[in-house]
Amino acid sequence: MQRLVWKNYVIAATTVAILALAQAGDADEKSASAEDSQTAWAPKFYGFCVDTHDAKKRTIPQQAEMLRELGFDGVGYSLWLDENAEKNLATLDNAGLELYHAYARISLKPDTPPYDPRVPDAIRKLKGRPATICVLIQGLPPADPQGVGPAVKVLRELGDVAAEVGLRISIYHHTRDWTESLMYALEIVDKTNRPNVGTNLNLCHWLMIDGDKDYRPVLRENADKIFAITINGAQVGAKTWTNGLIQPLDKGDFDNRELLKTLRGIGYRGPIGLMCYGIPGDAREHLERSIKVWKGWQAEWTAQ
What we know:
Elements: H1 2-38, E1 45-48, H2 60-70, E2 74-78, H3 85-95, E3 98-107, H4 119-124, E4 132-138, H5 148-164, E5 168-171, H6 182-192, E6 197-202, H7 203-210, H8 215-221, E7 226-231, H9 256-265, E8 272-275, H10 283-303
Parallel strand pairs: 1-2, 1-8, 2-3, 3-4, 4-5, 5-6, 6-7, 7-8
Helix pairs in contact: 2-3, 5-6, 8-9
């Protein structure tokens, strides 16, 4: 009889403890949810590849003025290696724009220098700016295993340079590059094992290479490795860039809002770039359409 009473007591006590833990968990979740709802998600928005296909062929000062007038927060360019770097940065400063994305190239081709010798100093010149150094890794077929050792070595070298000035290196996965797949880029990030070396999510290249996969679990499982984002309107299943996988945000059937919801859910708080490569016509016209869509989304996030 005493054993039965004791058994019932233990069961009751355990049940009470479990219920208490569950209530505490619910309270913590509600508290976190309330805190999140009070903080509007407001990632910075920048134009990328604005200079590549503009029918008006605007100069960098003209591009900066246009982006400022339209309401963009910044811009992305190739990493400036020559004497124009300081002038171009001053142009952005005067327009009130940030340089969020600066890309450079790494070569894995045997008997070839892995990068331009001016790259380290060009990175150091960006000290104090919110730029991510995005690297395209080229010179070998996609995922060729002989590139792993050299790539890791170079990524660590540049990662150390970037760390000197508080910046990060991000693999720009790009179709037909050695790291054309985001999945493979993530493997290389793991092998590099540097906290300031991660990878981009470039929507158009994801759709071209891995478009048959669900990106959401990939982002959730690798949230701490996603350093840079570029999005655009896109037609799912297309195999061309222009009028296919790269369009203004008011075109295409890819659900960017679901992608942005996922990014918010994994705690991504960095800037988001608008991919403009290959979009024909006057850049101002399609940029104006995309920023209108973006501002509409911003209004929704603020109201949540």
